[in-house]
Amino acid sequence: MNLQSLFQDFNISKFVVYTSLLSFLILFSLRLDEFITIKYVYVFMPLWIWKTLVILGSFIGTIVFLKNPQYRHENDSYIQFKSMLISLSLHLILLMFEFLLCDRLSNNGKQNLWILVFIPLIVSSIISVFFCIWAIKQQNDRSFELELFLSVNALQFVFIPLKLDGFISWSWEIVFVPIWILLCLSLVMMLYSLIFCSILIRTPEMNLTQRQNAINSAISNILVLPILVFQILLADKLDNDNGLPYTLISIPLMVTLFALVLLSFCSKGSSYNKFWFGMRNNMFLNMLGEYGNISITYSRNQQETGNQALSPDSQQIEEKNHKKNVPIIPHFSIETPD
Prior knowledge:
There is one protein chain. This protein is mainly α. 71% of the residues lie in helices and 0% in strands. It has 18 helices and no strands. It has helices spanning 3-8, 12-32, 40-43, 45-67, 77-106, 114-117, 119-138, 145-152, 154-164, 172-175, 177-202, 208-222, 224-240, 246-249, 251-263, 283-292, 300-308, 312-325. The longest helix is centred in the N-terminal third of the chain and has 30 residues, at 77-106. The termini are far apart.
């Protein structure tokens, strides 16, 4: 296995996000079914570890940016720094929402309305629209998946608290209409990616990297099917109470998140932000370059000591091999006239 290519394609940010979401989903579903009776503070701990890493990485990156003025003369340094601050602001708003949600669940709904709890999430969705427009105008390699996810679900984040507070009496199937629309669009994209992938695989002009990217994109789009199954089971559970535990209902979503964790190892981590934790390059490639490229050389004294330790038969074999490898030099030039 080529470790350099493995870590070069490894996207550590996606790995942290999907691992945190998977851990939270497992703990949250077990807590709702009362298979475990821990406090909600511990249930939200994976999400808070994720946010802590983001805050720590941006803090170190800001110090590196301020202490090294030469980095500011690079072409995309300011764009990279601004994108880091944008991501930090969104994560802080999400952290506020998680604190309010944890407090609301811990107190059994005796204090705040759900609409007040969802206000940070709604605000982050509105801000994400402008961040997506800014990212598209910059035309760089920065991914804005979090901003895009928040912006397209803005209407859904309004319907859910209104339903929970009783301001609307719709069924959950109607409340989830924005998600149904997004899932239908995702199904169309899945069919398109499958057709496109099949064409690329059969095209001889495409290299191995392009085919691998097409296959990874097709697999990522196929993951919309487990999400659709999860959404159908959840809507039926909330409307009709079908008797299924939340742990069983969330299994399709767990499968999706686990697959995304595996896909993070081939998600092309080259589009990382160079100021996170002050790492100018890929952290794992730096480690391989520092500790993996170790060359071992032997001095002449060590070689002589090793030859003396050999047996006489071994020394004779070594001398014969050495003589075979020595080039033959003629005693006199054949081209010399008589």
